[in-house]
Amino acid sequence: MPHSRSIVDTVIPAASIPVAVVPTAPTPAAGRQAGTARRVGAVDGLRGLALLLVVAFHLFGHGRVSGGVDVFLVLSGYFATGTLLRRAEDGTLRLGAHYARTLARLLPAALVVLAAVTVALFALTPRMRWSSGLREVGASATFWENWELVRSALAYGAAGPDASPLQHFWSLSVQGQFFAVWPLVVLGLVAAARRTRRRARTERSRAGQAPAGHGGARHPSDGPPPSARGPLTPRGLVTVVTLAATLASFGYALWLVTVDQPVAYFSTFTRFWEIGVGALLALAPRLSGTLPGPVRAGLGWSGLALVVGSGFLVDGAVAFPGPWALVPVVGAALVLATVLPDTQPSGKAHSANTQPGNTQPRRAPTRVVPPSSTPSTSTPPDTTPPRSATTPGWTAGALLDSAPLRFGARISYALYLWHWPVLVFWLLTTGAHRAGPLAGAGILVVSTALAWLTTRYVAEPALAHAAAAGTRRPAPAGAAPGTSPTTGPGTSPATDTSPATDTSPATDTSPATDTSPAPAPAGIRTDPPRTTPSARWMPVALLGTAALLLGGTQLAATAHDATVRHDVADLRTPSPDHPGAAALAPGAVDIPPTTPFRPATWVAFDDHPGRPECAQSADRPELLECTVVAQDDPTAVVYLAGASHELQYEDAFAALAREHGWELREMLKHGCRLATSGAGGLAYPPSCATWNERALDALTAARPDAVVVVGTRTFEDGSPERVMPGQVGAWRVLADAGVRVVTVRDNPRFEWFVPVCMEDESIPDACGRARAEQLAAVSPVTTADDVPGSVVHLDLTDSICGPVICSAVVGNVLVYRDDDHLTSTYVRTLTPVIHEQLRSSAPWLFADTPAP
């Protein structure tokens, strides 16, 4: 069947400008199909349902994900591949026009949301988050946010006051990268297949193999010559490559999920297989029409159950995109396969009409006549046929083909863009950790209103404006015989039953999305495209705006980061007005209250040891070892071993190492204390357990003079301080090897970011905690069972907390850089205290003290 589509399907997804499709000079064959273009409302409903699931789980799922984004990925692959292949085979794929329309669908609404987020970033968020926020704005504007999140090591989690307001752009970035690359892939594969087939045909012709039939002259009804049936057809080659890429992506996802799941969650390469499933569905023969009605209905309901139940069955935030992602992907594929019309996928049956030498007449074009009403202010008619004409009332398609879900499909892109930042900024301004039912309903109402306004007054007018760039003028009266009006934007010589759907929150990639004018039948003259200057320059303006946003935000973030680095460097210069821990010593001199504390709240988060490459990431098992202070002939070798709470003391121990001739080394892994696992040990994930085994083997082999670890664990929620299981076991392994262990008592932890709290408070105690809420009266490590007698203990509590309150600021120094780590500025003020306690409890580390 020749391909076809209408402007209703092409220009604006799910709710287009009002148009009238009028057949013009149809052939008898075309007359039978004229006016049959329609949307498949169930596909729109599937998009609406997926969007509803995404929003509902973001609002109320407490970190679980719904699988709705996975549905969008499948739909994107399905419709984009069908469209691109058909037009590449027809020769109507114009990359410039295709990319221009893609930009017109993606960028206008996204830029509006990004502009609003940028304003809110400066108005509502703490300054310490400006740099990362600005970088994400630029990355989102250029569809690179998923890789920015990977770079910044931000795992996907529940919305909260500390969440990124642009984190949800990761999925749009994956799709944007696909839409940028896939047209080139499809076009290249089609060209390669045709070149191969022409070469095979030429070689056989030279070998004297004349085609049979009709006295040596081939009639079009004979189909392709035998020589053309050898190499793969364009569709066949695209199918093979897509299948190989999909399997490779799935295999990579299976592996990376077990190694580094946060990276796997955001990676384009691990997510491609979900897009590939949709693409393969578009390339495969349509089988649903051969199934009995009850079987088809059962498959549809099963698919719908998988889509809806995915978020309840699987915690996708920690399992996707591994094998569990098959639940929503297979569900979407089943629904899609059962609700689409019983026709061959676009781009197969019609392709013969465009092969060289084909003399079959193409059906006459369809003329699209816009009504007199203004597109941007008119409510479009519902072009979906009555439900009885599309889906029986007892099928899943009938449920999906409902007005509320189709309305959700219309605003799906804008609602996806708006709901997450509205939620995050609401949580930030209220200080709540999650939205309750009433607040969630209010956020949904506000987000829906913003989405409708953005769709109605930004996205749809922009798409309508972009359509003008591809319109053709009808032939003037009195033109040469045989001339007829040419196709309008996105129309082709027949009507298409494939649905034009907004296949992701991001874009319309249906088989009717490419608005390249179709070639006119032989003997038909077409005039050049008529474009208005503004329509012609709109893609350039959109690209320019995105580029300016990227460049501006990156420059601003870079300048901000440079200022922070400068201020952090200045903190290393001692200040008599900022004694820190010395202010808690007996007889300390009071500090003038007019002196501002340091570091500033917006600098504090970056006030940490400057060796991030020395600490292994949370999900990698490899052992890293760094030498912080090297000595040619060290008097002692000391290791900091464990996680970030050991790392935070680096500056104090480095100062002591330089003073006393020690060699200071580090063996660290984020989120992984030095401990044994298994029976009686910590229930660590495999990467941490493996790291611990390697670390203990390396430490016993190195036989240092001391291994410094944090000996107790405090808890944000006020649970009792305790020694973690398995830590004592690790100390015993080291003690049995003759290695001495020095434990440091843990510091208080908070349920809030202390620097953020101090931006709004003038009294440091208001951002502190009662000492008794966090710390036991006596360090638990001194009373723990089975602690080796060679282990010594340091307790810095009296130099961090007062007798009653653990304040946010001590001695004019901000104590905490986040909710549980000390600033390096404060740690440096602890150096004399650590030195004094080590002198008393670990005298063997000092050259002027005889070894025990």
Structure notes:
- With 852 residues, the protein is mainly α.
- Strands 3, 4, 5, 6, 7, 8 and 10 form a 7-stranded mixed sheet that branches.
- The protein is elongated.
- The N and C termini lie far apart (92 Å).
- Residues 1-38, 210-223, 344-391 and 472-531 have low confidence and may be disordered.
Can I get a quick summary?
This protein is mainly α and 852 residues long. The protein contains 29 helices and 13 strands. β7, α25 (727-736) and β8 (741-744) form a beta-alpha-beta unit.
Secondary structure: elements and pairs:
Blueprint: H1 7-10, E1 20-23, H2 28-31, H3 41-60, H4 68-90, H5 95-124, H6 130-141, H7 145-151, H8 169-206, H9 234-259, H10 261-266, H11 268-283, H12 293-313, H13 316-319, H14 326-339, E2 366-369, H15 387-390, H16 396-400, H17 403-410, H18 412-430, H19 437-467, H20 533-570, H21 601-604, E3 615-616, E4 626-629, E5 636-642, H22 644-647, H23 650-660, E6 662-669, H24 686-702, E7 706-710, H25 727-736, E8 741-744, H26 754-760, E9 769-770, H27 771-774, E10 792-794, E11 805-806, E12 809-810, E13 813-814, H28 824-829, H29 831-841
Helix pairs in contact: 3-4, 3-17, 3-18, 4-8, 4-11, 4-14, 5-6, 5-8, 5-18, 5-19, 5-20, 6-7, 6-20, 7-8, 8-9, 9-11, 11-14, 12-14, 18-19
